[in-house]
Specification:
With 413 residues, this protein is of the alpha/beta class. It has a single domain, classed as Vaccinia Virus protein VP39 (Rossmann fold), CATH 3.40.50.150. It is built from 15 helices and nine strands. A nine-stranded mixed beta sheet has the order 2-1-8-9-7-6-3-4-5, sandwiched between helices. Strand 6, helix 11 and strand 7 form a beta-alpha-beta unit. The longest helix has 23 residues. The protein starts with a helix and ends in a 7-residue tail after the last strand.
C-alpha cells in the first residue's frame, strides 16, 4: 500500500489536481456560452492589482464534458475502481498527501496552522454559538469528500482548508517556481473577480453593491477576497458545515483584534508568528465586518431579493443534479433586480481536465462523489430557465469557468 501511495503522490505532484474548498482562478477574456461561442466582453483595466495575460480559447475543447464522466464505458470502469475499498483507501490517502506535500515544499504552514487551530479554544466555542442544531444534513452532503470520511463535517477538514487552498493556488502555477503564495492566490482570486467586474461593466449591473452573499463560503477564503474587492459592502458567508463557519468566524474575530498581521497576511494561511493577541493592526477599519451563517444553500430562509451579488465559488461540483437545480433557484430568489449571480467552478470543456491521465482523473473522481452529475449538468440552461439574463460562461483559467447572469432592474423588464 505504501508503494501505491508513493506512486500516486508522484503523479499528483506533476498535476494540477484540485479538491473542493481550494478555490483557484486566473482569468481569460474569452467568453463561452454553453455550446456556442459569444463575442468577447470588452476587457477592463485594473490599476490596483496586476494580473497575468489571459488564456486563449485554445485551452478549451469542443467536447461538452470529459469522457471519464457521465455514463460512458470509461466512466463506469473508473467508478467501479473507486468503489473497490482497498483501492479507494489508497486514493484517499495519496490525494491528501500530495496536496499537503505541495504546501510544505513551498513553505505553506500546513502543520502549524492545523496545530494552532486545534489548540485554540475560541474556535470550539464559536461553533457552539453559531451552529444551527435544527439543520438536517441532506444525504449528498454526508458522503466522503476530499479524502475525509465525513466530508466537510469535521474539524480536520475545516482546519486544513486554508493551507490546502494555498497549495491549490501554487499548483495552478506549478511551472512558475518563483511565484509566492500571495502572488498565486492573487492571480487565482482576482481572475474570478475580474471576470465578475467585466460582466458587470458590460451589462451595467452591480453598481456599488450594498449586500453580497457568498454561498458555500467554507472557512471564508473566497468571502474575504470578496470583502477586499467590495470593502463598503455588507457581506454574508453561508455554509452548511458548522466546522467551516466556526473557522471563518474565528478569522474575522482575529482580524478585528488585529491578530492577523494585516489584510495581506489575512488572505493566505496565517503563520504562527503572525498570530498574536496584540491589536496594533489597523486592518479592521479597512472594510466592513463579514457576517457568517450556518445554513443550507438550497433553502437559506433569507428574504427574497436581498442581495445585489450572489456568489457561489467552487461548490457546484460537490452537488448532484437535483441540488444544483435547487441552488440555481435559490440564487435567483435571493438576487435583487439589477444584481447578478456567479457560479464559478471546474470547466467541463477544459482541455486540462478532459485530458487528465487515468490515474489523475480516477483520483479526482474518488474525492468528488457527485462529479459525474456536475459535469453533465447544464448550468447556463438552468440559469436562463429561472429568468436570469445575459447568461454567459467565461473561461477563467485553463481549468475553470465563471458562469454569470443578471436580473434586470424593474424598469428594464
Amino acid at each position: 500500500m505504501n508503494l501505491g501511495i508513493q506512486q500516486l503522490n508522484a503523479k499528483l505532484e506533476s498535476s494540477s489536481f484540485c479538491p473542493k474548498s481550494f478555490r483557484p482562478i486566473t482569468a481569460s477574456r474569452s467568453i463561452r456560452g454553453g455550446c456556442n461561442s459569444r463575442p468577447s466582453l470588452a476587457p477592463i483595466v485594473r490599476a490596483s492589482v496586476e494580473t497575468p495575460e489571459r488564456v486563449s480559447t485554445s485551452s478549451q475543447n469542443e467536447k461538452a464534458m470529459p469522457e471519464w464522466t457521465g455514463d460512458s464505458i470509461l466512466s463506469r470502469v473508473v467508478n467501479a475502481a473507486i468503489n473497490f475499498p482497498p483501492l479507494f483507501s489508497i486514493m484517499k490517502v495519496g490525494a491528501r498527501a500530495a496536496i499537503k506535500g505541495t504546501a510544505e515544499k513551498r513553505s505553506v504552514p500546513w502543520a502549524s496552522n492545523v496545530s494552532t487551530l486545534e489548540s485554540t479554544p475560541e474556535v470550539f466555542q464559536i461553533m457552539e454559538e453559531i451552529e444551527n442544531k435544527a439543520i438536517e444534513y441532506p444525504f449528498y452532503y454526508t458522503q466522503p469528500f476530499h479524502g475525509y470520511d465525513t466530508g466537510n463535517l469535521s474539524w480536520q477538514a475545516a482546519f486544513e482548508v486554508e493551507p490546502a487552498s494555498d497549495a491549490m493556488a501554487l499548483r495552478v502555477y506549478k511551472t512558475e517556481t518563483e511565484v509566492s503564495v500571495m502572488e498565486a492566490q492573487t492571480r487565482v482570486r482576482m481572475g474570478i473577480l475580474d471576470a465578475v467586474q467585466n460582466f458587470a461593466n458590460h451589462y451595467g449591473v452591480l453598481k456599488n453593491p450594498n449586500h453580497i452573499i457568498d454561498i458555500g463560503c467554507s472557512v471564508g477564503v473566497s468571502t474575504r477576497w470578496l470583502a477586499k474587492q467590495y470593502p463598503e459592502a455588507n457581506i454574508l458567508g453561508l455554509d452548511l458545515s458548522p466546522y467551516m463557519v466556526a473557522v471563518a468566524e474565528l478569522r474575522e474575530r482575529q482580524r478585528e483584534r488585529g491578530a492577523l498581521g494585516g489584510d495581506d497576511s489575512f488572505l493566505i494561511t496565517p503563520s504562527a508568528d503572525k498570530l498574536s493577541s496584540s491589536s496594533s493592526s489597523s486592518s479592521s477599519s479597512s472594510r466592513r465586518r463579514i457576517k457568517y451563517m450556518h445554513g443550507n444553500m438550497e433553502s437559506s430562509g433569507l428574504p427574497n431579493a436581498s442581495f445585489d451579488f450572489v456568489s457561489v465559488q467552487f461548490v457546484a461540483h460537490e452537488c448532484p443534479a437535483h441540488v444544483l437545480t435547487n441552488l440555481v433557484a435559490e440564487c435567483r430568489r435571493l438576487v435583487r433586480p439589477g444584481g447578478m449571480v456567479l457560479i464559478a467552478d471546474n470547466n467541463p470543456r477544459s482541455k486540462v481536465i478532459q485530458n487528465l491521465p487515468p490515474v489523475l482523473f480516477t483520483l479526482m473522481k474518488s474525492t468528488e462523489p457527485w462529479s459525474d452529475e456536475y459535469y453533465a449538468f447544464d448550468l447556463e440552461a438552468e440559469m436562463k430557465k429561472v429568468g436570469l439574463l445575459g447568461v454567459v460562461t467565461e473561461d477563467s483559467d485553463p481549468r475553470h469557468r465563471a458562469v454569470m447572469g443578471y436580473l434586470p432592474s424593474e424598469g428594464d423588464r
